[in-house]
Each structure stands twice: as C-alpha cells, then as structure tokens.
Amino acid sequence: xxxxxxxxxxxxxxxxxxxxxxxxxxxxxxxxxxxxxxxxxxxxxxxxxxxxxxxxxxxxxxxxxxxxxxxxxxxxxxxxxxxxxxxxxxxxxxxxxxxxxxxxxxxxxxxxxxxxxxxxxxxxxxxxxxxxxxxxxxxxxxxxxxxxxxxxxxxxxxxxxxxxxxxxxxxxxxxxxxxxxxxxxxxxxxxxxxxxxxxxxxxxxxxxxxxxxxxxxxxxxxxxxxxxxxxxxxxxxxxxxxxxxxxxxxxxxxxxxxxxxxxxxxxxxxxxxxxxxxxxxxxxxxxxxxxxxxxxxxxxxxxxxxxxxxxxxxxx
Length: 316
What we know:
By secondary structure, this protein is mainly alpha-helical.
C-alpha cells in the first residue's frame, strides 16, 4: 500500500476542509465565496480520491477463500515432457522474449500508460517458485490466487480453470525441473494512482481469482476425438476467440481479437486445420495474424490439433 500517497490525500482533504471552514466563518461575503467554495471543492476532490484509493486497496488486498489443494507433482520424464507442452503457452506473458525459460517480465513498462506501480508476470523458474508448494502453484494456475491468498492480476486463470489434475501437475513438474534463473520477480506494488484507477476505471476482470476447485478434474482420454479436442481448446483459446469460438470484435479491451474458429474448422479439412496450426500459414497461403501464438503450440501433436478441429466441427 502506498501509505505516503494515501496520507497526502488525507492531509490535503483535512487542510482544504479547514480552510473552507475558516472561510465560511469569515465576516466578509467575498472571503466566504472566494475562499470557501474553492477550498470546499478541493476538500471534496482530495477526500473522494482518498475514498477511491481505500476501495482500490481493499480490492487489491482482499484474501480469497480458495483453499490450497493437496496435490503433489510426480517428477518423471513423462510428466516433465507433458508439462513443457503447456509451459510453452505461458511464454507470451512470462518471458520477455516469448521463449523458455519463463523468467518473467514487467507488465508496467514505460509504454504502458501512467505510472501506477510494479506488476510483473512472475519468474516461473525455481528462483521464484522454490518457496511455493505444488498445491500453491496449482491454485495460482487454475484459480488465480497467489501464495498470500490474494488474487493475482491479469493472469488468465479462467482459461485454466478446467485443466485436469494430471496436466496441471505435469506443468508444475516441468517448472520444478528447470534451472533457477535469477533474479526473482519483484513483488506487486500499486501506488495511490493505481488504487484510484482500480476503484474507478479498471474493470474487476483484471483480477484473476476464480471459484475454488473442490473436486478432482480428469481430462478425456488423449485421442483424436471431439471430446478431447473440446478439453484442449478450452485451455486458453476462448480469451481471443470468444467463449463460443465465434471470434471477438476488434476494438475492445483485453486480448487481441481472434477470428471465428468454427467457421474456419467447417470450411477446411481436418488436415488443413492441422497444417495451419503447425506452420502458421492458412491453406490459401496467407500467414496467421502475428498475434496468434502458433509457435507456442509446437509441442502439441497433430492428433491434438485434429481433435480440436473435430470438436469445432460439432458446434453451431
């Protein structure tokens, strides 16, 4: 919490309130008007800003009721290899160059707007995660809740809320298996301006916390089936392609808008769908939009891509 900034707002409110009070008690009318009205307005501005900051910090520091799941990763080659498949999809946010290792990056750099604090996509190597239990990492991935019980920010936990226990633990195993890369990412800090914006402007969707997961989650058998394809495609594709996979309109806030996946799957063969995700080039020879992270999917198999196509072809 930015105690200095918050204190300045409270002090400003008190000072201008006292000035307004003194002006109102003055004998001359012009002093009442010239001194009282501006001072009262400024007291309201400082007081309102302080109130908004308190609301913003309350949102930021609220402890979520999500318990830490009692899950433990199995450290074997099969799990680590499977985990790398999913880890590569995290590189867009958790790596400054879009590649492994996942050393984290600053989300609030010089080009991100007004300075509102420090917010990093975390370093996901053992340099940062050594102090975390496997269950705490699982909770962060699937439920968007940090080790301290507070909601993470910007982390797309809604996309991973349905990730199976086996797959999320495979991801944990991969993260544990990597060399520690220093430095660990700095803790989240939001200044008073950021707190005001959290209360008044920034939508609550920036907070990542999801409902607690209280039952085991199992994935369908790995095969080129619509059932397995539906499981895979719900792990992240909805953020850009819409909850119904019909695409997102351009110009909105949030992730870059992706096209209609159902239309694409139904107007192309399964082989063409697979080739597009494998090469980044559509059947007509045009490249996929640069925002489409197809390279991050390189560890998925052709059967995985075929399963996605088959699932999309079942949708209306």
